[in-house]
Automatic annotation (TrEMBL):
Belongs to the protein prenyltransferase subunit beta family. It comes from Thelephora terrestris. One of its GO terms (molecular function) is CAAX-protein geranylgeranyltransferase activity. The keyword Ubl conjugation does not apply. Transmembrane segments: none annotated. This is Terpenoid cyclases/protein prenyltransferase alpha-alpha toroid.
Length: 362
């Protein structure tokens, strides 16, 4: 799309900030049925405020302190190491006196995705990580890797797809310690997720999707000194598949023959950036699509006309950070804080985590 053709709506920064602030304060802690979804929701709300640069003005220090303490309330440990569990209501207190049922196996097991999310949310909140059990975290990673190289969501089982491998690798990167994982075995699992289209499925044999393709690119790059972690033929095929997912609306779709969806602007766009080909994306068309996904009362929806939610708001802002439209195309209101695409957090937040997570010698 040329700059003359572009008619980019203004990015409603204060509206999006307000949407995320409302979603944060509208989370009743008595809502037990969605208890395990609260932390991701908090992450997407706070992450959006972080990318917009409004976290300090939209929230109070007393609230941030309270959220930090809430998240540490999820810290759990046992025979399989330590990490963060999905829910405040998951407690082993009823089983502690039953010799047949150890509390770690029943309720208090750390969860890989929750642990990744908790670490990044604590970094957004500028926690000092003094309460982190570094050694327990490495044990948890080791306990969660399977024979085929994949990781399970917790040491007792559960899902085993690319999301878990990605979270395990980011945790290693934040710890600057890879001793808890068999990297080569894990990379073998990721390579088996590649499909004939050049994208990656969430597990071997699954259809190529934007999300797992981003995860695969990030996983490869986190352990590679060079951006050339795919051979030339593979790189061309993967890029071609990713780029043809930017459809005529300007947005990206997540799978062949699907409609564009705001979250895939990040999942596909992030993968393209990791492959070093940002110049091949039409930034103006992308901003035009995301501008039309803005909900009139704040927040960004998955598609024009849909209701907004923190997940699509955060990932849209992350995509805009990678592909900002030029000022001359009307993108003056679209400046977003720089993103660490591999970690999927604001660059200074990812750096905070790396700087403050206790070092190996402690
Ligand atoms: Zn979506």
């Amino acid at each position: 799309m040329t700059e003359q053709q572009a008619n980019i709506p203004v990015l409603a920064r204060s509206g999006h900030s307000g949407h995320c602030t409302r979603c944060l304060t509208g989370l009743p802690f008595s809502l037990v049925t969605v208890d395990s979804s609260k932390l991701p929701l908090i992450f997407y709300c706070l992450g959006s405020l972080d990318l917009l640069g409004t976290l300090d003005t939209a929230t109070k220090e007393s609230e941030r302190e309270s959220w930090r303490n809430d998240i540490w309330g999820l810290h759990a440990g046992g025979a399989w190491g330590s990490g963060f569990k999905p829910s405040w209501y998951m407690t082993g207190s009823d089983t502690k006196n039953d010799p047949q049922r150890t509390y770690e196996t029943e309720f208090d097991t750390p969860h890989m995705i929750v642990t990744y999310t908790a670490l990044l949310t604590l970094a957004i909140l500028r926690d000092d990580f003094a309460r982190l059990d570094r050694r327990g975290l490495v044990t948890f990673l080791r306990s969660s890797q399977r024979e085929d190289g994949s990781f399970t969501s917790d040491p007792t089982g559960g899902d085993a797809d690319l999301r878990l491998t990605y979270c395990a690798f980011v945790i290693c990167a934040l710890l600057n310690d890879w001793s808890g994982v068999d990297v080569e075995k894990a990379l073998g699992f990721v390579r088996r997720c590649r499909t004939y289209e050049g994208g990656y499925g969430s597990a071997p044999g699954c259809e190529a999707q934007g999300g797992p393709t981003y995860l695969a690119m990030a996983i490869f790059r986190l352990t590679s000194d060079s951006p050339n972690f795919l051979n030339a033929v593979e790189r061309r095929q993967t890029l071609r598949w990713l780029l043809q997912n930017q459809d005529c609306s300007g947005g990206f779709r997540g799978r062949t023959n699907k409609d564009a969806d705001a979250c895939y602007c990040f999942w596909c766009g992030g993968a393209i950036q990791i492959l070093g080909a940002t110049e091949l994306v039409d930034n103006v068309a992308l901003a035009s699509f995301l501008g039309n996904c803005q909900f009139r009362f704040g927040g960004i929806a998955k598609a024009p006309g849909e209701h907004a939610d923190p997940y699509h708001t955060y990932l849209s802002l992350a995509a805009i950070s990678i592909f900002p439209p030029s000022e001359s195309a009307g993108g003056g209101s679209w400046a977003i804080e720089p993103l660490d695409t591999l970690i999927n957090a604001k660059s200074s937040t990812a750096q905070w985590a790396k700087d403050h997570i206790p070092s190996k010698s402690m």
